Each structure stands twice: as C-alpha cells, then as structure tokens.
Amino acid sequence: MADARVWLITGASRGLGRAFAEAALAGGDRVVAAARDVGPLEELAGKYPERLVPLALDVADRRGVFEGVERAAAAFGGLDVVVNNAGAMLYGMVEEATEEQIRAHMDVNFFGAVWVAQAVLPHLRARGGGRLLQVTSMGSGGGMATVGLYGAGKAALDSVSEALAMEVEGFGVKVTVVQMGGYETGLFTAGTTATEPLARYQPLRTEMEAMWGDAVAPGPDTAAPTVMELVALPDPPRRLIVGSRSFDHVLQMDRERTELYRSWENLSRTAPG
Fold first, then answer.
1. Which NCBIfam families match (predicted)?
2. Tell me, what's the pLDDT at 273?
3. Which residue in 57, 113, 135, 175 is a FRET match for 107, CA 20 to 30 A apart?
C-alpha cells in the first residue's frame, strides 16, 4: 500500500464520480468520496472499509469546502489526485431561467469547482505535486439551446482551469481539463433543475428534444479506464476529450467554427487590433 495514491473525488455518490471512485479502489488506491448525500456510498464503504472515506460536502459552501478538504487530507495523510466532478444541470432556455436558478447553478458548476481547487492546492504542493482533474464537457466550447447555462458554467471552468494549469505547473501540480462525452450519469434526471417553459419556445424545444433522440448513452464505468490511464501519465495533457464519438463531434464543431471565422475574415480584418 506504500505506493497507493490518495484521491479526493467530488460528486462521488453517483455517475462518473462513483465510477472513478470504484476504479481507483479496484486499483488499490485510497479514496475520499465527497457528495452532498453520502448515503449511496454506504455499500461501497462496507466493501472497502480501510480505503474509502465518505465525506458529506456541499461544494457551493466555500467555508464548508475548505473544512472538508482539511478532513479529506487528514484521512490518509495527504492528497495525490483530486477530481473536481460535482455538477448539476440547468435545463431550459436562457430567457426562462430565474436569477435564483442561474446563481445556484453557477455556485455548483463553477464556483464550487474553484473553491475545491483553492482548498486542495496547498495540500498538493505539500506533497510535492499531484493531479487536479477539472471535469467539464465536450460541449463547453460552444453554446446550445436548452443547455446554454450548463455550457456557460463548464466553459468558465475550462478557461479558469487553463489559467490554473499555468499557475501551478511550477509546483509540480498537473491540471487537466477533462471534457466528458455523453454518459448515462443521471445528470438529466436526479441532477437536473428545469426552467418554467415559455410557450413561445415550444417549437424549438420540440426540435431540440428530437435532436437529443433516444439513443442509450454508455455507462460511466466505461469512461473510468481512460481517467485511470490519464492519471498514470507522467506528463498529462492540459485538456482531454473522453469519448470516441465525442472526440469526433468536437472536431466537427471546431471545423464548423473555423469555416465561420473564414467566411467573415474580410470584415474581421477591417479592424487593426
């Protein structure tokens, strides 16, 4: 167990966080599994009583995050890998969303991840380095109707994580933006807040729902081996798309964006900046 890594995973009670926790434990590592509701972790804790510590944590509570990270670091004497995975979905058109919904959404998906990053960095530096995985989305590079606010939070986390990677690399801390593809995580059910629909948007809403389709997404456990391999890399990338189909989608979106820029290049170049 001398070489066992210590993980802190937020949003670990279900979905991707749960899959990552199970993979780390199966690999012989130790895990502090954080979630607002740790009840679903009882069975896993019973299976790994010496190597799993459930931690009740609301990432939107900055003071609670700092206190929780101290408990997490003390559980196994430090932290090696931190997975900033906690997140939620705000589903609906931008005009429909209330101020309360938007602020609560950003408190979890953006600010919560920032609080965790701030709290864990002293511990990673004390370890002489470590890994910080910032879980975002393959769709964070552009907005899409009905999930625009979700994309906005992930895009903001993308940007701040790129900056953070530059800031902490000199301390031996490696930050990777992990752009997850579509997995069956329960995000669109248990993790979703929906806006009150406005009738004027119903045609577009119907169109978007048809576009999403009924395709069955792969289970989150299928993404875990990729994350385990990523963590094992001595020089990991600052950004990684997780998912073969998602990789193709992102490349296509990038091509379309480049074509759009090129089509308006003459107008862009009329300004000297």
1. PRK08263.1
2. 86
3. 175
| One-letter identity of residue 157 | L
Predicted structure pTM score: 0.92
What DSSP line would sit under 71-107, residue for residue? HHHHHHTS-SEEEE----EEES-GGG--HHHHHHHHI
Region of residue 253 (phi > 0: left; psi between -120 and 50: alpha; otherwise: beta): alpha
Pairing of strands 192-194, 89-91: parallel
Beta strand extents in the chain (DSSP E only): 6-9, 30-35, 52-56, 81-84, 89-91, 130-137, 173-180, 192-194, 239-242
The token pair at 198 is 């406005």
Distance CA 40, CA 155 (A): 30
**pLDDT tens per residue, range 237-272:** 999 999 888 889 888 989 999 999 999 999 999 999
pLDDT band at 103 (very low <50, low <70, confident <90, very high): very high
Q: How far apart, in whole angstroms, are the C-alpha atoms of residue 137 and residue 158?
A: 9
